[in-house]
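Box 3.1 A note on notation
Throughout this textbook, protein chains are presented in two layers. The first layer is the amino acid sequence; the second is a token string describing backbone geometry. Keep the layers aligned when reading.
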Amino acid sequence: MTAETSMTRPSLRILVTGGAGFIGSALVRHLMASTDHQVLNVDKVTYAGNLASLTSVEANPRYAFLKADICDAAAMRAALAAFRPQVVTHLAAESHVDRSIDGPAAFIETNIVGTFTLLSAVTDYWRDLAGAERESFRFHHISTDEVFGSLGAEGFFTEETPYSPRSPYSASKASSDHLVRAWQETYGLPTLVTNCSNNYGPYHFPEKLIPLMIIKGLAGEALPIYGKGDNIRDWLFVEDHVKALTRVFEAGAAGESYIIGGRAERTNLQVVLSICACLDRLRPRADGQSYASQISYVTDRPGHDHRYAIDPSKLERDLGWTAQVTFDEGIEATTRWYLDNEWWWRPILAGTYSGERLGVKSA
């Protein structure tokens, strides 16, 4: 959907949880640039939340920010009462598999207890709405394809795929998905659920594979790849993802779920080699060698799912969304962004995360 078609839609009041995170901030920037919607961004601003990702929108009169925790029921009720949203898009979550291995408690608290707390507050708020306002309200829960477990060499995840989470992170997200569907079935809350494949793009926290490889490559450090590098992910450029999210909460039918993917399967090794090729072209090493010479192989992550792949046909067919950015285009744009925006990521390396390996603790 183009900016022009989105601008023709009625303005909505949208409460975004987790809007200082990677996907959340991309959604907020998109809504400010390409729609007339009003946004209240509710974020606790944990280590991965970064208000610097929102400097381009912070002065927009359609945007407001509230620092609050979704686990704080009173704060959620107050925010709902004051802003009176027509849509709640729930992105606030702990989201890194390796961190969930080292410290699962935070994932249980935020992803499960936090979602329950938010659902309870939203349900009470929705019950007090009347007429068309109540009918058109949507609670949109954003989740991950990791809830479906691991695929073999063939096949794709669809909306009908049974859940089979294998990490503390994916188990916590599966739990939150089930809670949202239960609130739809039990209480009638009009919900939407989307499960996306691996996102990448600008403003991605440096603990994740693609920004980590770019930054370590520039520093001349080893580029660690788990196992043999043959684990496969289906990659989705974040700007394509947030356009899909907007399409879902604007036009999706209550009670429906949609999975979102970019039809861009790559092994982890292929991803890293693509990054190296971009760096070779955009910022060649002084010694003339390829950045690929920095690749090293390390012990695999515990319970590392082999393959994820998404069939987004339902979303394409029912709501008319398709991914527009190819993986090669996206990885080039992402690499250029990190080269041009050291002001954003260098303070992170000096503060909350310095590039160390995570996810090596045993139970």
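The two ends are 46 Å apart (CA to CA). The CA atoms of residues 97 and 169 lie 5 Å apart.
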